[in-house]
Design brief:
four-stranded antiparallel β-sheet, 4 strands, 201 residues, globular, Alpha-Beta Plaits, 5 helices, alpha+beta
């Protein structure tokens, strides 16, 4: 695992990425948190315009096979965005972070990009609030689930060729079997084909 970003290789590449929960606590045994993570992944894909070829969310880690839209939108920034937002919103659902009241929707006239992003964020906040209410009904206020946190770094591998892509594609899409998750496990790319991009050489 890389200790600093200087060792990472940025460019027009496809990357296999693995990210673990700190302390390997099985947060994603809980369907509500899985649904949140899927929502976060969709949002990250939309904002960054990355290509997503495969993913699998397991109880305490996830795998991605992605290609950033360009070098500026590099995969470290993509991961930072995904990790930060999902961590904050998971802790909102768990009750460790409070929701801001009356979030600002002020925009500058003609600032369509900012307006669309603000609308997206407002819709996302509403979704997280609904998940929080569902979580409270199911687990109550005094649950024993710890505060959520991702490990500081993540593992990455630059895909070298078509064979390497196929190897990591298969590993990612069927990773739930390796970890003996339920056969009907749905939090992986095979169940969300609409967000998966085709690999074109």
């Amino acid at each position: 695992m890389h200790r600093n970003s200087e060792k990472r290789v940025y460019g027009d590449h496809i990357y296999f990425i693995t990210c673990n929960v700190e302390g390997v606590y099985p947060f994603f045994e809980h369907e509500i948190l899985c649904n949140l993570w899927i929502h976060e992944l969709r949002f990250t894909k939309k904002i960054s315009q990355m290509e997503l070829f495969a993913f699998c969310l397991n109880y305490n880690h996830f795998h991605l096979l992605i290609k950033p839209h360009n070098v500026t939108a590099n995969y470290s920034k993509i991961m930072q965005f995904l990790k930060r937002n999902s961590s904050q919103n998971i802790n909102k659902i768990l009750g460790y972070t409070y929701f801001k009241t009356n979030p600002s929707t002020t925009t500058h006239e003609g600032d369509n990009v900012h307006y669309r992003l603000r609308n997206e964020l407002n819709k996302f906040d509403e979704y997280v609030l609904k998940l929080r209410e569902s979580f409270k009904r199911e687990y109550g206020e005094n649950h024993d689930i710890p505060k959520f946190k991702w490990q500081k770094s993540f593992y990455d591998h630059v895909i070298r060729n078509k064979q390497d892509f196929e190897k990591h594609y298969q590993y990612t899409m069927y990773n739930y079997k390796k970890h003996e998750l339920p056969e009907e496990w749905k939090y992986m790319g095979l169940r969300f084909r609409e967000v998966i991009d085709d690999f074109i050489e």
